[in-house]
TrEMBL record:
InterPro entries per record: Beta-lactam-related, Beta-lactam/transpept-like, Diverse_Enzym_Activities
Keyword line: Hydrolase
Identification of the protein by name: Serine hydrolase
GO molecular function, one term: hydrolase activity
Signal peptide: none
Species lineage: Bacteria, Bacillati, Bacillota, Bacilli, Bacillales
Family annotation (Pfam families): Beta-lactamase
Domain (Beta-lactamase-related) ranges: 39-282
Length: 305
């Protein structure tokens, strides 16, 4: 085990935090690595959202979509939903969806609902639900918003997010045989469902740190990564969940940002320290994991600059 993460591993074990794998990269080099039982592909949950964001950045660059593109450009709102509210889902823009500001008080299409929903056309279901308030003003975390981003992308490009990203992102990063769940109608889930090893997650973090540049090629527009990882809307949470939200990325304390997924999938990028911390876990107390990153790993990274 690398000395840079000795203290981190000691403390997560002491606190009984079920972390599986850790990778620490600085200046493009892996300086710390630890696996409890081996680095295997695991479900990344909402880390998937940040990959979907990369597809959107490319579509915007190609002119296939704009931030002002509306759901109503691609999907119809079944009646009577559009008559029940002054805020029909058809008016939601890609910008609203990227910032998680769609205007639902109670988000829909959570994993439990997706598993039991009689309607197999999830986009149709989303469009049938009136919004509770004016969109674009308030953050409400919603996996359904990201699914609709994926659905809009597929409607605009004719390709699934997964298939589109294979030659443009996954293959250049050396990520092969990509597994990513789909809806019953074959839309890449977008909000969840992607499987990665922790080493692969670390490569994604390094790509973000390099603002989309990889092995001499610009895979993702640098400006898009800067926008996506900058606060676009404030968030009401505590700790690292209260630092604001970008486009499918969370802001962190210490001027960092992250992709994160339920139960402790974390890809933390610290631009000022030229560093990435990738973590795969099965642990609900994600703030405790991050607290240990800040207390045990951050000072070492700072000392190396």
């Amino acid at each position: 085990m690398s000395s840079i993460i000795n203290s981190f591993v000691h403390h997560i074990d002491e606190q009984q935090l079920n972390v599986h794998s850790v990778r620490v990269l600085q200046k493009g080099v892996t300086i710390g690595a630890w696996d409890r039982t081996g680095d295997m592909r695991r479900l990344q949950h909402s880390v998937s959202k940040s990959f979907t964001c990369m597809a959107i950045g490319l579509a915007l660059d190609e002119g296939t979509l704009t931030l002002e593109s509306k759901l109503g450009d691609y999907f119809t709102s079944p009646t009577p939903a559009s008559h029940l509210t002054a805020f029909p889902p058809a008016d939601l823009t890609l910008y609203d969806l990227l910032r998680m500001s769609s205007g639902h008080d109670v988000p829909v299409l959570w994993a439990e609902e997706r598993a039991t929903l009689p309607e197999k056309d999830w986009a149709k279901y989303y469009m049938s639900l009136p919004l509770d308030r004016v969109p674009g003003e308030t953050f409400t975390y919603s996996s359904a918003d990201t699914f609709m981003i994926s659905a809009m992308f597929q409607a605009a490009t004719g390709q699934t997010v997964k298939n589109y990203l294979i030659p443009r992102l996954f293959e250049p990063l050396g990520i092969t045989n990509v597994e990513w769940e789909t809806s019953p109608l074959g839309i890449t889930l977008g909000c969840a469902g992607l499987q990665l090893t922790n080493e692969e997650l670390g490569r994604f973090g390094q790509l973000l740190l390099q603002e989309g540049h990889w092995n001499g090629k610009q895979l993702i527009p640098a400006e898009w990564i800067r926008l996506a990882t900058t606060q676009q809307i404030p968030t009401p949470g505590d700790g690292d969940w209260g630092q604001g939200y970008g486009y499918q990325f969370w802001r962190c304390s210490h001027n960092a940002y992250r992709a994160d997924g339920a139960n402790g999938q974390l890809c933390v990028v610290l631009p000022e320290l030229e560093s990435v911390v990738a973590i795969n876990s099965d642990e609900q107390n994600m703030q405790a994991i991050l607290d240990n990153v800040w207390s045990d790993i951050l000072p070492i990274l700072e000392g190396n600059i």
